[in-house]
Amino acid sequence: MAGLFITFEGPDGAGKTTQLKLLAHHLQSLGIPYIVTREPGGTPLADKIRALLLDVQNENMAPKTEALLYAASRAQHVEEVIKPALVRGDVVLCDRYIDASIAYQAVGLNLSPDMIRRWSVEATDGLWPHRTFLIDVPSEFGLSRIAARGTPDRIEGRGVLYHERVRRTFLELARQEPDRFVILDGSATIEAIADQIRHEMNRLLNL
Ligand code: TYD
């Protein structure tokens, strides 16, 4: 597949969505074809799964149900959106992907990381991003930004200890795959982070 697959990860409230939009503007100004998408969701069917996952009323959802729904949403998203875009040669900018399931469902909910990884690898035919920008912030910091935005969703409302495990897992995943991950300090200014991301992207595009 000819395109470039880029994902953004980090604890809730890290600012990844802001950075993703800034990178989209950068690609736009260079005239490079790209798409912006997100998980869970990214297609009409996957957006319905997203609504189930984030609905605070689904408080009795079993951990494996939750993990399988994230994998199901991902299967649909890859098939319907990501693979066709990569085949066209587009840059795909995706807000969250498999790493989020390992952090939030495996470690966060005490499920086997190998099992969670396997489910997503099956769901995506083993499609991994070329680069993952991990925007790292202390959990309290991210959660206070989320609180300022309004009522937290089902995952955001899980408390600081859960989110601290999520953060540590992202950092551990980045340590294990230093060639794929770029770790960014989310407490730096928006412009400073965007600069680093643009620099890495230009390098990937041989500019
Ligand atoms: P997020 O990108 O934070 O959405 P938004 O910025 O619009 O709130 O993702 C939504 C939530 O889903 C977030 O709390 C993280 C969670 N999530 C998982 O638990 N597992 C996953 O595999 C993915 C993709 C997301």
Outline the structure in words.
By secondary structure, the chain is α/β, with parallel strands linked by helices. It has a single domain (4-204), classed as Rossmann fold (3-Layer(aba) Sandwich). The protein has helices at residues 16-30, 44-54, 63-88, 98-109, 113-124, 139-149, 160-176, 190-204, and strands spanning 4-9, 34-38, 91-95, 131-136, 181-185. Strands 2-3-1-4-5 form a five-stranded parallel β-sheet, with helices on both faces. The structure holds thymidine-5'-diphosphate. Thymidine-5'-diphosphate (TYD) binds at residues 12, 17, 39-40, 70, 95-96, 100-101, 104-105, 155-156.
Small molecules held by this entry: thymidine-5'-diphosphate
Strand order of the largest sheet: 2-3-1-4-5
Given the structure, what is the number of helices? Answer: 8
Low-confidence stretches: none
By CATH's scheme, which homologous superfamily applies? P-loop containing nucleotide triphosphate hydrolases
CATH class: Alpha Beta
- Report the C-alpha radius of gyration, rounded: 16 Å
- Helix percent reads 55-70%
Overall pLDDT level:
96
Could you describe the largest sheet, including whether it forms a barrel? 5 strands, parallel
